[in-house]
Amino acid sequence: MESTTATHDDHYHGPASGIRRWLFTTNHKDIGTLYLWFSLIMFFVGGAMAMVIRAELIAPGMNLVDPMFYNQLITVHALVMIFGAVMPAFVGLANWMVPMMIGAPDMALPRMNNWSFWILPIGFTLLLMTFFLPGGAPASGWTIYPPLVLQTGDAFPFLVFSIHVLGISSIMGAMNIIVTIMNLRAPGMGLLKMPIFIWTWLITAYLLIAVMPVLAGAVTMLLTDKYFGTSFFDAAGGGDPVLFQHIFWFFGHPEVYIMILPAFGIISEVIPTFSRKRLFGYEAMVYATAAIAFLSFIVWAHHMFTVGMPIGGLLFFMFTTMLIAVPTGVKIFNWVATMWRGAMTFETPMLFALAFLFLFTIGGFSGLMLAIVPADFQYHDSYFVVAHFHYVLVPGSVFAIMAGVYYWLPKWTGNMYNEFWAKTHFWLTAISVNITFFPQHFVGLAGMPRRIPDYPVQFADWNMVSSLGSFVFGISQLIFVAVIIGCIRGGTRKVDDRVWEGSHGLEWTLPSPAPYHSFDKPPEVR
Amino acid sequence: MSEKPDTEQQPQAESNAQGPRHASLVVKLGFTAVAMFGFGYALVPLYDIFCEVTGIGDSTTTTAAEEPVNLETDYDRTVTVEFIAQHEQGSFWEFDAEKVRMEVHPGKLYTTHYVAQNQSTAPQAAHAVPSVSPAGATRYVQKVECFCFEEQQFDGKESRNMPVLFYVDPEIPSNLGTVTLSYAFYGQPLLTAE
Chain B residues with CB inside 8 Å of A175's CB? Predict the structure, then answer.
């Protein structure tokens, strides 16, 4: 590795200067950075909406916003967080880390990479400008079920086209990642020698290519139903609104795993580093990831148990859903086994990874409860569901992203972040996320429906607790931004190439900060 | 643009060497994406075919059945048939079932009526979509004649009694004691346009 770094200076070409660097860049590190900043901004946009939602719900009664605007907020909050915050964050991490982890000089299709990022802001401009259109933003919930969504005003075509644009961006990003991983691995790096983060992203990218076009088709059908007289989902014309739910969730369930598999990959990188052991059961992890991806295609109707399915259908989807707990359990077991008798230390990335382990498991268990058909008839569309998916998405996906950012930030910048403030960020976040979402299990089980701006007084106390927790969570994220900016501006000290004592993998053989072009000559993997 | 070739030289050189390999994979992946877009549309007929083949979930039949001339009427048992009428709230249609409930012998032909009125002064067309509940009973509730088989034309303020001739197949499982026949009545700007 010494030779790689030594010869590197001769080949060094810095980035272009000014705005053109970012507009025209084809460098995977620049594009990764763009994705990550974009995702952080969207995290705050969606978060600001969440703050208004929780402020409305802090007490019974209509407190702050008009109910219609409330519905717009919950809809756009979800779309922004899913397509704007979580997915671009993972794509950003992939852009930064995939070439560095497999010993490639860049992504395989650098110009497409530029495009797949730059159409994202276009998609979100389309989506967010709907707040200013007559009739306001889409207010049907992010699941955009007809016939309700067809009542959307002028925002409707904007919603459809923004989903098209975001879908195209995701598909291009996924193609790039697959081609990079399949074609540009360093000599000697066989498929089963790839880091687990690469594996999870490879499988995720295939999921994206398989299901994003299905969503594009579904919203196109909605568009033609509304404006061109087709009747895919219109009972009057012989269509069936339940068909939309089937098509949507055929996309929607794999989408859920698109947002968690890369998180599994990050956790599988972080835990071994801070346990100073190799990952326990590497091959089992790979096969478990593939199994989860396969199962994600045959469980979709568990989102719609209450539409009136025959008993055979209910049983099929209940059992396949419960089957997912098996490969997921394998993963949890392997993470715990990796830590077993390891020399563990608790730097911020490890803290986030450990919190992920506990809290994602809670979300997994509530998911199992929801998988039980008779129980789901009560839980369906209640706050219990809200608690469940926020547990898997916030302390699941978002915590994994934060773990990844803290883990690789010193490699990106060459500087160590401020550990004190990072740990403060962690503890405030981890405590407040539970204060926010745990009480939602209680009000959900007690019967509080989701997607309502007002509720009976019996739910008042826990909603107050939940709202206060969410405000602490929201403010705590400002610390995250401050720590990142502080680290970019010099941090607390310079770091060496390894950064972490227990780290292993090709990315740690590069200098810190990672040079603009890396691995001009492919490294040898033993 | 002058500095651009500089910044791109390394990845560019790499991808030139890799060109053909990349291209074939990109084409395959792009084809997959396009095929999956088509698959989303293919789900529409597949959904109907799946329900038809397995006999699940299919609650709508809009084709006429044969008169039950060869069927033995089962006078030993009765099945309760309930009738439901739905129409859009706030529209100018009135739509109701003549009878709410009938006790019928399987295998025997019965007639009931639905009453619809166009409360506007202009001529209107409307279409009824039938549905049987529970879904598993659909194949046993046979309609010999039904106003739902075709579009209905109404003059302004016209009210009409529309017949349904139906029978319950004697092979209906004994656990189905009650079946519900429901009609949703839609005013038709959409269908007349087609």
Answer: 26, 29-30, 33
ipTM of the complex model: 0.88
The single residue of A25, A33, A75, A170 carrying the catalytic annotation is: A170
Render pLDDT for A234-284 as a digit per residue (tens, 0 to 9): 877 778 889 999 999 999 999 999 999 999 999 999 999 999 999 999 999
Nearest CB to B135: which of A106, A243, A310?
Answer: A310
- Does A456 have pLDDT greater than 80? yes
Q: Strand order in B159-168's β-sheet?
A: B93-97, B110-118, B159-168, B141-146
pLDDT per residue as tens digits for the range B118-148:
888 888 888 888 888 787 788 788 888 888 8
- Tokens 């839980």 correspond to what residue? A379
- For residue A340, give both structure tokens: 């077993």
Determine whether domain A2-9+26-509 maps to CATH 3.40.50.720.
no
E strand or H helix at A70: helix A67-79
Q: Do A183 and B18 touch (CB under 8 A)?
A: yes
List the one residue out of A267, A253, A276, A469 whose CA is nearest residue A351: A267
Determine which one of A169, A180, A348, A366 is catalytic: A169
What residues of chain A, 147 to 186, have a C-beta less than 8 Å from chain B?
A: 171, 174-175, 178-179, 182-184
Mutation for testing the A interface, residue in B3, B6, B7, B61 having most A CBs under 10 Å: B7
Q: Which of A26, A179, A235 sits opposite B8 (nearest CB)?
A: A26
Which residues in chain A touch residue B20, judged by CB atoms under 8 angstroms apart? none
Residue A20 is a catalytic residue: no
DSSP annotation of B137: G
Q: pLDDT value at position A222?
A: 96
Closest to A214 (Cβ–Cβ): which among B40, B184, B190? B40
B68-73, Cβ contacts within 8 angstroms, sequence gap of 24 or more: B68/B107, B68/B108, B68/B109, B68/B142, B68/B144, B68/B167, B71/B107, B71/B167, B71/B169, B71/B170, B72/B107, B72/B170, B73/B105, B73/B106, B73/B107, B73/B108, B73/B170
- For residue B184, list chain A residues with Cβ-Cβ distance below 8 A: 235-236
CA–CA gap between residue A438 and residue A22 (Å, rounded): 41
Of B12, B36, B188, the CB nearest to A213: B36
Q: Which residues of B fall within a CB distance of 8 Å from A240?
A: 47
* A148-173 mean pLDDT: 95
- Give the list of residues 6+ apart from residue B53 with CB closer than 8 angstroms, or none: none
**Residue B111 β-bridge partners:** B165
Per-residue pLDDT of chain B in tens (194 residues, 90 and over written 9):
333 444 444 444 444 556 678 899 999 999 999 999 999 999 999 888 887 776 555 556 666 777 767 777 888 888 999 999 988 777 788 888 888 999 999 888 899 999 988 888 888 888 888 888 787 788 788 888 888 888 888 888 888 889 899 888 888 888 888 999 888 888 765 444 43
Task: Mutate one of B18, B29, B88, B132 to test the A interface: name it (highest A CB count within 10 A).
Answer: B29
- The residue ranges of every structural domain in chain A are 2-9+26-509
pLDDT digits (tens, 9 = 90+) for A282-316: 999 999 999 999 999 999 999 999 987 878 889 99
